[in-house]
Amino acid sequence: MKDKSIISKDTRRGFIKKAGAAALFSAGSIHMPVGLANSFSGTIKKQLKVGLVGCGGRGTGAAVQALNADPDVILHAMADAFEDRLTSSLNLLKKAHGKRIKVDKERQFVGFDAYKKLIDSGVDVVLLASPPGFRPNHLTAAIDAGKHVFYEKPVAVDAPGVRKVLEAAKKAKNKNLSLVSGYCFRYDLQKQALYGKVLDGAIGDIKSISSTRNGGELWFKDRQPEWTDMEYQLRNWYYQNWLSGDFIVEMFVHSLDMITWALGEKMPLSVTATGGRQWRTDKKYGNIFDHFAMEYNYADDVKGYCFTRQQRGGSSKNAVEINGSLGNAYYEGNRHEITGKNSWKYDGEVNDMYQSEHDALFKSIREGSGINDGELSANSTLMGIMGRMAAYTGQTITWEDALNSTEILGPDSYDWNLKFEGPEIAVPGKTKFI
């Protein structure tokens, strides 16, 4: 059957909170990739100016890793919807990399159009870490302007956004621009070894894959008197599906991406799912669910079984199990193992996958090799979106259904006084597919 692809340690959340600035930003933490280190043995090449869009914990962490990846990188500009977020991030970065933080006042951009001003400020590389609802427009603008990009996952929250990202990725390839996504598990040495063996046939023909990611509650920011409705939603973007895509898209896509990886980038034919709100019943949790269960159907009767929840008080798990005709492959925590005919257990080097993403990006830029994660990131994001569609509607959704969907979750334009409620909380069997 023809392939249905679109085109033929923990998440970085809480990065700043989990460790002190001294530990995070010490000079000794710099990890230089071998190829890149060798390229600097002679004359230092052109200084690269980096711009950061989205100055929360995720973005601040990405800026640190960009600076660690290449000794001739400076942070040149910063942009965020909120001045306090930008200022807090800037102060942390200055304490850590003082002389390499050259973000003068005139290159500190605030507001909905801040990303445009940053892109026009003379940067060479753009780091995109705003809420994913903004990602398609931000990525498109950066590629149109000829910038290299690191962009966090997911790449969009709806199918029109995914299609926009695919167009940007095509342009990046034509321009030989480097485009690295935040699907960080792809850059983890343990998983590269495990999935490499699976793809080489170590467990035979894959029959099914199960993936589970269960955890507790996340952050929430109480409303302040001076906040407009729009600011309140943006400050709590995770709970608005027009900004986050719901947590199946924002978080669980890592697990879906590992399924895609194990299957050699083959896309599902369809998905049937369920989900709802058992814990997040308060209005403050916006319109997202707190649990999902999905069955993805592939050619040759291969199944992908997925379960994820974010509910306080339950057990936690983050694991993938791949069942094959010759054995099984497992990932859970530090376990990366194959059982059966070709038993194997990983015992090699353990790397910082977040840092390795940026090492790969800057090595690619220096070598002019144009690394491009565009199709990969779009496919995995759409897997999350189609799973959400199936759970929200209670219907079986095909890949073509999802890819061609016309549903746009967010507003046409943004304004601080805009009254935008977002989609209603979905009711399976009642909510319609668009």
UniProtKB/TrEMBL annotation:
GO molecular function terms listed in the Swiss-Prot or TrEMBL record: nucleotide binding
Domain Gfo/Idh/MocA-like oxidoreductase N-terminal: 48-175
Protein name: Gfo/Idh/MocA family oxidoreductase
Gene3D superfamilies in alphabetical order: Dihydrodipicolinate Reductase, domain 2, NAD(P)-binding Rossmann-like Domain
Pfam family, one: GFO_IDH_MocA_C3
Originating organism: Zobellia amurskyensis
Domain GFO/IDH/MocA-like oxidoreductase residue range list: 198-328
